[in-house]
Write a structure and sequence with these properties.
A five-stranded mixed β-sheet has the order 3-2-1-9-10. α6 packs across α7. It is about 30% helix and about 20% strand. It has two domains: about 350 residues, 2-Layer Sandwich (Nucleotidyltransferase, domain 5); about 55 residues, no CATH class. It is built from ten helices and 18 strands. It has about 400 residues and is an alpha/beta fold. It is globular. This is Hsp70 protein.
Length: about 400
């Protein structure tokens, strides 16, 4: 069956979603792997395989456009090339499962990227043989995923609260007359606590009970953080929800204050929660108390951007005018009114003329770094489909990661 593909390369995990062209507009998760590459001594790359001999690379997706490359043993590789290699591998794995090539591929990226960063990723994708691709800002993808099931009228606004394991952002998008979306405002968090920091706060509470020699399970902390009941037991220590909320309240208030600054005077129709960190009930509760609109989240908010990217790819192929208005349905919500998920719009096609020069940088006196010739073609041919994989039913380790 003909399909399109959406790929979201997060700091912790990379997710691929497919959307059928002759089926419903909803997307489904096809593959989830850790955002982890490792160059082996044999000169081949493995994907998602922790440990073993070699030189690992993580966190590269957020460093696209950085002039300083990753040093992987005998090789140096820019962040955009590592990102493109992982995307290429994801596409290949989905093609092997589906038995045919996707009609189009959409890849999400942070809303703060300008033409230079987008151009660097486009160039790296072309170098590894991925040509028919559209880059979609993450809040647009979140919004498009929502618009699949909830009617979003032209002129209305949606706010996107994104919290992953290592990144936070707040955005506002507006529905245009042509049924696409426009970015109204965006703030990228810098000094904010993210999912991994909340894990550490919970671990500190447990360690305070156990003493300095106590051993705390990081996996238990991560799982308990997002699914707090009246109390949780971690490494044999019971932590009440009120105690955890009191510990994280300053961090949550900081996140919410930044989000409200991004919203400004705009009155959004809904707040869309994106990223695995939003599974924490305290996030939804704090936002519900601060905004006068619905606060909406999917059961797995870490997958919302990948699904929305797939929906955006479908719009690129079929066009927004071919899609009927959705019938409102309901999902997990954090406020008083039941509704659904998220919407995006068709991202503009890249124009190579935009990518001729990087944005201006402040004057800094540094010694020039001579980069060796790029070897991305040789690296791409050496990429091996190794490592742990999961589809829509990912294993427990994948489910315990915040993603993004």
């Amino acid at each position: 069956m003909a399909y399109v593909l959406g790929v979201d390369v997060g700091t912790t995990r990379t997710t691929a979603a497919v959307c059928r062209l002759d089926g419903t507009r909803d997307a489904e998760i096809a593959l989830v792997v850790p955002s982890y590459l490792q160059l082996t001594e044999a000169g081949t790359f493995t994907v998602g395989e922790f440990g073993g001999e070699g030189w690992p690379a993580t966190g590269f997706a957020r460093r696209v456009g950085d002039a300083v490359p990753f040093s992987l043993g005998p090789e140096t590789c820019p962040a955009e090339e590592l990102t493109a290699l992982l995307i290429m591998w994801m596409i290949g794995e989905v093609v092997a499962r589906e038995g045919e090539q996707p009609r189009h591929v959409a890849v999400s990226h942070p809303a703060g990227w300008g033409p230079y960063r987008r151009g660097q990723l486009h160039g790296a994708l072309r170098a590894v043989g991925v040509h028919d691709v559209t880059l979609v800002p993450e809040p647009f993808a979140a919004a498009e995923n929502h618009a699949v099931r909830a009617r979003v009228v032209p002129g209305s606004a949606l706010a996107v609260f994104s919290l992953g394991s290592h990144a936070f952002s707040a955005s506002v998008v507006k529905r245009a007359q042509n049924r696409t979306f426009e970015l109204v405002n965006h703030i990228e968090g810098v000094d904010h606590h993210t999912g991994a920091d909340f894990d550490d706060l919970l671990a500190a509470l447990v360690r305070g009970r156990l003493g300095k020699d106590g051993r705390v399970s990081a996996a238990e902390c991560e799982a308990a953080k997002r699914a707090f009941g009246p109390a949780v037991v971690i490494s044999g220590v019971e932590i009440g929800v009120a105690e955890f909320v009191e510990e994280v309240r300053p961090s949550v208030d900081h996140l919410v204050a930044t989000f409200l600054r991004a919203v400004g005077a705009v009155q959004p129709d809904a707040v869309l929660l994106v990223g695995g960190g939003c599974r924490m009930p305290v996030i939804g509760d704090a936002l519900s108390a601060s905004v006068d609109c619905r606060v909406l989240a999917e059961a797995a908010p870490e997958h919302s951007v990948a699904k929305g990217a797939a929906v955006a790819a479908r719009l690129v192929v079929l066009g927004p005018d071919s899609e009927p208005d959705p019938i409102d349905t309901s999902v997990l919500v954090h406020t008083r009114e039941a509704s659904l998920r998220f919407p995006v719009g068709e991202a503009p096609r890249p124009d190579d003329d935009e990518f001729t020069a990087p944005p201006p940088r402040p004057p800094v006196d540094v010694s020039p770094l001579e980069l060796p010739p790029r070897r991305v073609k040789r690296m791409a041919s050496a990429l091996k489909p190794a490592g742990r994989r999961s589809g829509s039913r990912s294993d427990s380790r994948d489910d315990d990661e915040d993603g993004r």
